[in-house]
């Protein structure tokens, strides 16, 4: 499995990848990301050191990744691209690439090789899911639960199927308001083999079967749409367990000391990375590419893991992952890619969802409204 | 029929009415403890029984009210700690007073003796309804304030907060607001955009209102309708339109772009308030000024402007608040460099539910209250000075 290949890579020294042609580069950049702790980690790991090296350059953050596709379309139509580098999830990068709104990248030419000389395309491996996409992190959607709300005399939940077990673990659950992941978890817990999930889901009976399984807990589900909601609901004790991004759970548990436990079973892997919008002027493009080469090198990706528990996308970064910047705890065991956590993972099929998303969204929404 | 204003009421009337009020209070206590239904029933039974006990068995008001207040406070303290005790104290005092106010018929004291029971009912029913509406409007704003002093990073009343433990409270979200560069930049942007947008809307809006109020302007109504349209067209449509228009002009993502967009949104408010004040303006005054040799500019600043100033100021206040509160248009027309406070709050709410937003909201609410009270006090002062009110 190449996704976990990141764990097996060898250690080596870093080479700073920045090459300077300062005279013909723009001196400001607008970077687009998701806000919150994630953007903060990018700022600390990539932007602060880059600005320190390049005096006179300024970087502005725009927290608009959630509507990146729509906004880039509007910018393209208005002929006024105000963003220089955009952080998006892999599926959005594929859409933007197909629509010609993101620039195709030669990864080996534009990105720094690994310290041992491995070309970037090999270092990132099959995380490069699109020609426009420069992966940064591997994150996962997984479950957290209130440790103090586990019924007395019961073991805490250990399997994703405990979400569907209302008898042993009564209480509300929070799930993301979309079919992705939820349908797969439902089928898996209904007895479908992991390898057959997408085959079953391709049939109408399979979709009905997944919805029927979700239907068994429907009246106990709080549906969320923003990543901050599940940690808030867990902290309030409004739900017993809920799905969210693993970094959010890490923050609630390790940084906020909430009585929350974490399930890694059937965690759903996903990727997040940069795209460069098409249509940038030459000086802005030169600045962005210079920054990009620096921000995606082995050391910078490893540095980001000091601030947030998302796995660096380069294989060569994994051995460099150190301790949390303020708490001083080892970050490796909190990474979704850690062998102890990645025992039973779910890799969601981008291509299958790209083909079936619209259809299943409609069915899912209709089911929700019933 | 004898004129009996204050006389004891039958217990068959008092007990159910007190019970209904008790059920309402019980609804909140019950919801907080997990079961609204038990709260409602318990509240009804408890308060109705109290009314019966105090009004028929022990008719000593002083003792009865003390017992109710202290008893409820003790019960509250035993179930809910310090906070519960406080709530119990307030409820106990309130119900002790309510039982005797109702039971002794004191509620008729301020009403004319000839009012029928129906009129009395409507009188107090109306007040209760007003109180409920007020409660409904104010509660969401008030709840935000204690939460902004939360020691945790969640929108949660923690057990420490409910126990009134100082550990549960902190000023860290206020510190975050005043030290975090994102929030400071956002505040600075808001404070530099809103006054400029207000200035432009007031200038253009006042001129437009004066022009449109003179009779010889052709197509007055059509022009007025166009100028007011930003108020009527859904904001998101204006925003999308401005985005594409300003992009072509190179104004999108600039300070002046946002200022112009906000000025366009503020102008209708100024036009409406100034037009309303101009209705009471005597046109012969401008003719008199002209007769005495003043040119139109002097006439405007020396004669017309001072008289319509209240309308101009309130229009300006609306324009300022529109710009200061606006999030949709700035999301389109602004770029990350023009991130205003509402924009920053919107991001914070979507991406990380952080109580810093609540701290900002509390500061803004306090500022608005201060601002509006100041304006109101100044208005009263000027009215008093002009002898318009007895003050």
Automatic annotation (TrEMBL), chain A:
Pfam families: SBP_bac_8. Residues 1-22 form the signal peptide. Keywords: Signal. This is Putative spermidine/putrescine transport system substrate-binding protein. InterPro entries: SBP (IPR006059).
TrEMBL record, chain B:
One of its GO terms (cellular component) is plasma membrane. It is found in: Cell inner membrane; Cell membrane. The chain crosses the membrane at residues 12-30, 36-56, 86-103, 124-149, 186-210, 222-246, 258-281, 307-333, 353-378. The keyword Transmembrane applies. Its main location: membrane. PROSITE patterns: ABC_TM1. GO terms for biological process: transmembrane transport. Keywords: Cell inner membrane, Cell membrane, Membrane, Transmembrane, Transmembrane helix, Transport. InterPro entries: MetI-like (IPR000515), MetI-like_sf (IPR035906). It comes from the Bacteria. CDD domains: TM_PBP2 (cd06261). PANTHER family: INNER MEMBRANE ABC TRANSPORTER PERMEASE PROTEIN YDCV. Belongs to the binding-protein-dependent transport system permease family. This is Putative spermidine/putrescine transport system permease protein. It comes from Roseovarius litoreus.
């Amino acid at each position: 499995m190449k996704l976990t290949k990141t764990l097996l890579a060898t250690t080596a020294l870093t080479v700073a990848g920045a090459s300077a042609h300062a005279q013909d580069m723009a001196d400001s950049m607008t970077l687009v990301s998701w806000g919150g702790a994630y953007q903060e980690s990018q700022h600390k790991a990539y932007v602060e050191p880059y600005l320190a090296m390049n005096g006179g350059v300024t970087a502005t953050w725009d927290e608009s990744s959630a509507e990146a596709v729509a906004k880039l379309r509007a910018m393209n139509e208005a002929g006024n691209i105000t963003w220089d580098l955009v952080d998006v999830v892999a599926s959005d990068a594929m859409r933007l690439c197909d629509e010609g709104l993101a620039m195709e990248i030669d990864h080996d030419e534009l990105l720094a090789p690994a310290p041992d000389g491995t070309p970037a395309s090999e270092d990132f491996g099959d995380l490069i899911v699109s020609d426009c996409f420069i992966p940064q992190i591997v994150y996962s959607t997984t479950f957290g639960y209130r440790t103090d709300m586990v019924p007395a005399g019961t073991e805490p939940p250990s399997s994703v199927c405990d979400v569907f077990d209302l008898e042993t673990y009564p209480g509300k659950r929070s799930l993301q308001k979309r079919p992705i992941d939820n349908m797969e978890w439902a089928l898996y817990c209904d007895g479908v083999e992991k390898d057959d999930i997408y085959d079953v889901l391709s049939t109408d009976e399979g979709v009905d079967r997944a919805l029927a399984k979700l239907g068994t807990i429907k009246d106990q589900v709080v549906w969320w749409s923003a990543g901050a909601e599940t940690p808030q609901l867990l902290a309030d004790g409004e739900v017993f367990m809920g799905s969210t991004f693993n970094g959010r759970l890490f923050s609630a548990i390790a940084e906020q000391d909430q009585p929350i436990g974490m399930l890694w079973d059937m965690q759903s892997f996903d990727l997040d990375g940069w795209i460069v919008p098409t249509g940038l002027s030459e000086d802005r493009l030169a600045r962005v590419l210079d920054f990009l080469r620096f921000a995606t090198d082995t050391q910078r990706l490893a540095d980001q893991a000091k601030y947030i528990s998302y796995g660096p996308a380069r294989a060569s970064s994994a051995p460099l992952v150190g301790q949390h910047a303020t708490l001083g705890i080892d970050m490796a065991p909190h990474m979704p890619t850690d062998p102890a956590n990645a025992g039973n993972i779910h890799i969601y099929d981008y291509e299958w969802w790209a083909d079936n998303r619209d259809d299943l969204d409609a069915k899912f929404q209709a089911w929700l409204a019933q | 029929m004898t004129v009996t204003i204050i006389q004891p009421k039958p217990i068959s009337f008092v007990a159910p009415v007190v019970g209904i009020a008790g059920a309402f209070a019980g609804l909140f206590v019950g919801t907080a403890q997990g079961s609204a239904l038990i709260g409602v029933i318990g509240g009804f039974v408890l308060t109705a029984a109290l009314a019966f006990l105090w009004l028929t068995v022990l008719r000593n008001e002083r003792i009865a009210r003390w017992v109710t207040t202290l008893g409820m406070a003790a019960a509250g303290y035993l179930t809910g700690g310090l906070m519960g005790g406080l709530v119990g104290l307030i409820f106990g005092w309130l119900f002790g007073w309510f039982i005797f106010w109702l039971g002794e018929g004191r509620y008729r004291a301020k009403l004319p003796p000839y009012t029928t029971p129906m009129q009395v009912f409507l009188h107090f029913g109306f007040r209760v309804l007003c109180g409920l509406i007020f409660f409904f409007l104010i509660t969401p704003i008030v709840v935000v304030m204690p939460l902004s002093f939360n020691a945790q990073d969640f929108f949660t009343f923690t057990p420490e907060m409910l126990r009134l433990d100082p550990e549960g409270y902190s000023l860290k979200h206020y510190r975050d607001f005043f030290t975090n560069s994102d929030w400071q930049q956002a505040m600075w942007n808001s404070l530099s955009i809103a006054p400029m947008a207000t200035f432009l809307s007031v200038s253009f809006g006042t001129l437009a209102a004066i022009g449109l109020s003179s009779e010889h302007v052709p197509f007055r109504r059509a022009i007025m309708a166009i100028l007011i349209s930003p108020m009527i067209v859904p904001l998101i449509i204006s925003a999308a339109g401005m985005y594409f228009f300003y992009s072509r002009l190179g104004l999108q993502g600039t300070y002046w772009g946002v200022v112009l967009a906000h000025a366009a949104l503020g102008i209708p408010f100024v036009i409406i308030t100034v037009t309303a004040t101009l209705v009471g303006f005597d046109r012969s005054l401008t003719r008199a000024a002209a007769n005495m040799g003043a040119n139109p500019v002097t006439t405007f600043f020396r004669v017309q402007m001072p008289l319509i100033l209240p309308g101009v100021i309130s229009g300006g206040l609306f324009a300022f608040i529109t710009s200061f509160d606006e999030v949709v248009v700035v999301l389109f027309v602004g770029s990350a460099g023009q991130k205003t406070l509402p924009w920053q709050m919107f991001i914070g709410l979507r991406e990380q539910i952080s109580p810093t937003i609540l701290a900002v909201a509390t500061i803004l609410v306090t500022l608005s209250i201060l601002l509006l009270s100041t304006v109101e006090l100044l208005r009263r002062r000027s009215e008093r000075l002009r002898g318009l009110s007895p003050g």
